Amino acid sequence: MDCAKCSRDLFSPKKTVKCVKCESSYHPSCTRLKSVENFRKLRKEARERWECDRCKGLEEVSSEDEESLDGVKEVASKSESTRSSAAERAICDVNRKLDKLSSVAGDMRELKESVGFMSTQFDTFMEEMSKLKTTVDELHKENNDLKSVVRELQQKVDYLEQDSRNNNVELHGIPETNGESCVDIVKQVSNFLKVECGSITNAFRVGIKKDRPRKIQAVLKSPDDRENLVRSAKADKSLTARLLYKEWPNDRVFVNENLTAFRAELFRRAKAKAKDVGMKFVWLKNFVVHVRRAEGDRVRTIRSFDDIDRM
């Protein structure tokens, strides 16, 4: 609604005075009241009976004045409309920006919540990882302890097994024949080597038949008999199967200690490692592997695969 005097917008009913006769509305400052404060000083009855200057006969308006006033009103209306449109555009622009800011604020809240959630998840993950690491460390220690126990038990079992073979020897390179006597063959070998073995407790072939003849395992009377026979066979490298029986081939015959599977593999690996690192001597004494790089060097005892790695 516009003021009947100046044609400008009446912003607030509380700041508007209305004529009871013509029902036109005015800014208090556009009437004889001069100001809003004077309007507010009027009693309620006076406000309800208030008449504008024109209805009171205090204002004479000519036709020219009317036309001039109408022109002023039109210009004021257009100006007010322009200002109103600009204000509306500015308000819309501000509202759009506020909407964008509100959207950004919402996104920031969601991002903050997501970061907080991820932080909590990460803390939980790190806590679980710490527990797993502790468990792995404990299992690793327990595994090492068990390995040590197993290694110790294996050594004890190997010692007991090797001790049970203390009187045994193995003969390699002896051809197999039907109806053969392994005891007689062992006696022939000892006679050739000029070693007195005493009574031979037992002798037999060991292993599965293949293209090559199986070894003969003999149980002698004592460890000394075993040691004498093995030492003599290694010293005399001329022993062949043909020297025992002329019908047999001229293949070398070997007499060795009867080792456990573990010690046999240990001896094999020690010889291979010695060849790689340039060690000249690898031998067995009392079923124990020994190595030496050269004449006069320190003798090293090999009791485990770790000892071989350190050669």
CATH topology of the largest domain: Alpha-Beta Plaits
Could you report the average pLDDT, rounded to the nearest whole number?
A: 88
Shape: rod-shaped
Order of helices and strands: EEHHHHEHEEHHEHEEEH
The CATH class of the largest domain is identified as: Alpha Beta
| Estimated share of beta-strand residues | 5-15%
N-end to C-end Cα span: 110 Å
The CATH superfamily of the largest domain turns out to be: RRM (RNA recognition motif) domain
Q: Note poorly predicted spans.
A: 60-69
Largest beta sheet: what is the strand line-up?
A: 4-5-3-6
Question: For the CA atoms, what is the radius of gyration?
Answer: 60 Å
As an assembly, this protein is single chain
Pfam families: Baculo_FP_2nd
Domain Zinc finger PHD-type: 2-56
Organism: Apolygus lucorum
GO molecular function: zinc ion binding
